[in-house]
Amino acid sequence: MTETIYILNGPNLNLLGTREPEIYGSQTLDDIAAMLEARGEELGLTIEMRQSNHEGHLVDWLHEAQAESAKAVLLNAAAYTHTSIALLDAINAISVPVIEVHLSDPASREEFRHNSYVSMAAADVVQGLGAQSYIVALEKAAAL
Length: 144
Ligand code: DQA
Prior knowledge:
- Helices cover 37% and strands 19% of the residues.
- By secondary structure, it is an alpha/beta fold.
- A five-stranded parallel beta sheet has the order 2-1-3-4-5, with helices on both faces.
- The relative contact order is 0.21.
- Bound molecules: 1,3,4-trihydroxy-5-OXO-cyclohexanecarboxylic acid.
- 1,3,4-trihydroxy-5-OXO-cyclohexanecarboxylic acid (DQA) binds at residues 12, 76, 78-79, 81, 102-104, 106, 113.
């Protein structure tokens, strides 16, 4: 049986491709999913890619990753990164390692993006590499 990596994406990431392409690039979330599937296959990993605009879905899926004994979670919580104690608590509540992912580099953007609740519990962070952030994070997850 191959190991599974959950890749969880938060609000507005369903609009990638048309959403502020100067910041987030022109690839859609489906394009990124296809890249992750291909790299996952090379690494012998099963990819479970999800997106929701609702905070509670992300909490539920973190719990599911634990229940399903996932190898790791890649989490781009988008704006909830900067606001969600519920996500911080969920990451602390599970033993599956969570790698935080961002397309942009929040640290070099507006002040309100500098705080990350996800970072307080994440095993690692990959940001600022565009879609490639997800691939680097997947490779880190494979090496865990
Ligand atoms: C993001 C960065 C967040 O600050 C922002 O709210 C997003 C996307 C990124 O991938 O660069 O929605 O997580």
